[in-house]
Amino acid sequence: MKFLFYQGLTNRFTLPYLIHSAVAEGFPWSVFSNPGSVQTDAGDIFILSFLTPEAPVVHTLIAELKQKFPDNVIIAGGHHVSGNPQCALNTLGIDYAVTGYADAGWCGYVTAHVKERGAQKIIHLPEVESIDALLPCVDGLSCVPPLEIQRGCGNACAYCAAGTYHSVTQRTRYSISEYLRYLKKRGYTRTGFVTPQAFPETDDTSKDENLIEWLLDETNKSGITHTEYGIFPSEADPDISKKNIGLIKKYCSNRIITIGCQSGSDTVLQRLNRRFTTEDSERACAYVAEEGLRPVADFIIGFPGETAEEQAATLSFARKLVLHCRARIQIHYFIPLPGTALEGQMPSALSSEAVRDMEKMRSDGCLVSDYAQHIRDFQIIKPWLEGYHNTVTLFKGDILQ
Ligand code: SF4
Question: Model pTM?
Fold first, then answer.
């Protein structure tokens, strides 16, 4: 029996973590991108892990796999499936939906479940106390992706999956050192780190409060000449301190820091259950600029129920950050993610004024993201998402046991 891992558009960096566990547990594995290139034997298991934007493509892929390999089991996991496993199971045509994070030992856990062929088609992976054992280090894979150093987030923003189904867990220094040694063995001189919050503020005394400073220093000492930290999608919250900006300045090669502003309207921020206000975002961008780095202010537009006035407030606030802090602006169009408070809610339409403003910001060079492409991408997946959420009762049970 071997695991056949799908390599798609949204899992390039997570695949090595999944495969690391297969290697450690002694399971044979291979990677495929399209069904035409797959060689299977009886009992082989397809593993698909993907994010919401790729879900329609994966849906089509599953139908092809089912037709071509009717005797092989198809298992899907990742954020999209974990957020609403019942919906994924009913809609995608998979045999099993896996929830939670694939930590060390997940291959054996899943295989045992499949061998029993139990009626329970949702497999809840157990939540682990430590994420140390799972490293994205696999000989034979061309990519050693950035290291996940924190899982989960203490906040619970309505649109975000990070805070919804995992308690906050930090990787320890020991495990980080192991990763750095592996990078050295592979001859890497550049790396980055993945975290929902670049500088988590916590009162939890069990957390290593100097972890980030140690991490950046240790990375430099290990021979890495280009370390990137505090940039999208592992951006800093608006409560970033000057001390932490100084750490990036001292140790990292990026001269930008991304600040997760999300909206320029405090009413919207409140509705989203954000812990931060526009005042916090403005202060953070000012701090970054004062330290001689460039803030990249990150926003989402089109939140469900967002009015034309609220969109205008976001764009006017973005302009203010450009003028006062030399900020660059990133704007994404909202996508509802399974498992979040905004699951199944479609984005609001953009007002013509908002589109005009963003066009102007693009031509001025201060808006660096392609909002129009985001909208085109969303238009492609919108009918699929609507059908997906209409077909079943939304699953809102406890998905981690
Ligand atoms: S948006 Fe950031 S702060 Fe909010 S829950 Fe997600 S990771 Fe945490």
Answer: 0.91
